[in-house]
Amino acid sequence: MNIHGFLTQKISQAMLLSGLSENCRPQISQSEKERFGHYQVNGMMALGKDLGISPKTLAKKVLEKLDLHDIAHKVEIISPGFLNIFLEPRWLAIQIDNVLSQDTLGITPIKKQTIVVDYSSPNVAKEMHVGHLRSTIIGDAMARILEFLGHHVIRANHIGDWGTHFGMLIAFLEKQKIKNYAKITLNDLEILYREAKHAYDQDVKFAECARRYVVKLQNGDEYCQTVWKQLVNITMTQNQMLYDRMNVTLTPKNIMGESLYQNMMPDIISDLKSKKLAVHSQDAVVVFLKEKHSRSGELTGVIIQKKDGAYLYTTTDIACIKYRCETLHADRVLYYIDSRQNQHLTQAWEIARQAGYIPDSVQLEHHMFGMMLDKNGKPFKTRTGDIIKLSCLLDEAIDRATRLVLDKNQNIPKKELKAIAEIIGIGSIKYADLSKNRTTNYIFDWNHMLSLKGNTSPYIQYAYTRVLSIFRKANIDLEKRLSGSTYLLNNPSIELALSLLRFDETIKKVAHDGMPHILCAYLYNLASKFSQFYETCQILEEKDKKIKQSYLKLAQLTAKTLKQGLSLLGIHTVERM
Ligand code: ARG
């Protein structure tokens, strides 16, 4: 059920009947205040202006043709020309029963697309740090949501597994006579990398050897390839452990790193040259792009091949988008990368578009995000100024969640405590990130994220356990299809029903905008509405059998929606807290 879509259709029909053209949009939104009804039509202001008619007159004309019989009990016009729609509780109740009679929670069908989601994308020989956290968590939630709607989602982990520094690493491992790779951890690799860089900068002979290895690696030398593969392997095995721990759906199959595109490069360079897009400039190969906002037509030079023949990060992304369009047949590509890479991405796409690698119908979207900051608004680091490792962050979250659970219940068996703390701890970190509008920086705050009050995952997980406990006490299986009809006889019930019926429109908006915080805000609202309902309606004490059954139905749909919603965010629920 999509009330928003349904009303849009109804109003559009009325607009047509009142003589407006079919291009006119009603622009409906959920009302922000109760006194404005449940939905509000905002489009008359802009239309009135375009047509030179007062918005109120226009609203009146539309209202005359509007048929919301049995659907709304009141539609009122307020200045300067809004239409406020007050939905009929009986109609809402029927919709709840409809939703409960299906298994889809009211999700309506979509036009299936192939969507590539580029996320996480750590670099080889470096541990993932908190900076990769946002990309991984937000990207994974989006992949889950798009898949849930029925799209064909391709998860692309664009790892940094190529570049001249691999020559340096291979040479250094050889210099140190390190042969047993099985014992090397990612942490060791990071240290080796720093030492190798030092040697490269200090020792001319070593630097020369490193450069020779780069060429060898690029030419497919067997020894270099083997060592390189081991380096990638060490890194991604460790990262996979983190993904699994965080309930992130990425698997080794999703790795599509920079190396994948290297054999496409020579052809792309010559193609761009033959299309007169790329030229030689000071020994490098460069594409000159018009500055977006410059009137005088200033140009920016983007290097795609260096003097020594090496390709760049941008060249890789040109090949990568070509591959995603031509080989993966993407209709839409979402990139979850921090905002500092926006210029890089737009340049790569612009070149690829000009070269004809991207059909016009393909949508490319950079879903940027800001940084994670500490309480003082500074980039999140350890006391010694190092970047915080993701694994340490997760350990601390679980520690804190353990204390939270123990505070409430000291008698909980150890094994259960461990499992619950893991779910609550990791969930709270993920939710803290997902619940903020991703475009801004956000302040990492342990106390808030683990609080049982406010827009946090423990609050929503707790609301879920409350329903479970009702069903346990009533001795009913939560999955059972309940008989009887829904009655919405008081305000908290109506509000809860309305929130439940907005699941579909919420998910569709998140899928469109790539903004999971909208889903978080929805779940928080739903949990709050449930809490008000729970306090007003004594579900288990209710004497009237029909009403009790109706309460149970609302509670059941609440639990299912909360669980599904959290699961789309990659967060588990617990049976009790
Ligand atoms: N590996 C890069 C980094 O850590 C992110 C890659 C993002 N994806 C892309 N197609 N460029 O900064």
Automatic annotation (TrEMBL):
Please tell me where this protein is predominantly located: cytoplasm
**What Gene3D superfamilies does the database record attribute to this sequence?**
Arginyl tRNA synthetase N-terminal domain, HUPs, Isoleucyl-tRNA Synthetase, Domain 1
User: Could you say which enzyme class this protein belongs to?
Assistant: ligase
Q: According to the UniProt entry, what is the EC number of this protein? A: 6.1.1.19
Instruction: Tell me a Gene Ontology molecular-function term this record carries.
Output: ATP binding
- Domain Arginyl tRNA synthetase N-terminal as annotated: residue spans: 1-87
- Cellular component aspect of the GO annotation: cytoplasm
Q: Which InterPro entries match?
A: aa-tRNA-synth_I_CS (IPR001412), Arg-tRNA-ligase (IPR001278), Arg-tRNA-synth_N (IPR005148), Arg-tRNA-synth_N_sf (IPR036695), ArgRS_core (IPR035684), DALR_anticod-bd (IPR008909), Rossmann-like_a/b/a_fold (IPR014729), tRNAsynth_Ia_anticodon-bd (IPR009080)
Please write the reaction equations for the catalytic activity of this protein: tRNA(Arg) + L-arginine + ATP = L-arginyl-tRNA(Arg) + AMP + diphosphate
Task: Give the UniProt subcellular location, in the record's own words.
Answer: Cytoplasm
Q: Which residues form the DALR anticodon binding domain?
A: 460-577
Swiss-Prot/TrEMBL keywords: Aminoacyl-tRNA synthetase, ATP-binding, Cytoplasm, Ligase, Nucleotide-binding, Protein biosynthesis
Give the location of motif 'HIGH' region in residue numbers.
Answer: 122-132
Set out the biological process GO terms recorded for this chain's protein: arginyl-tRNA aminoacylation
Asked whether the keyword Membrane is assigned, the reply is no
Concerning CDD domains, the annotation shows: Anticodon_Ia_Arg, ArgRS_core
The answer on whether this UniProt entry bears the keyword Amino-acid biosynthesis reads no
Family of this protein: Belongs to the class-I aminoacyl-tRNA synthetase family.
Q: How does it assemble?
A: Monomer.
Specify the protein name: Arginine--tRNA ligase
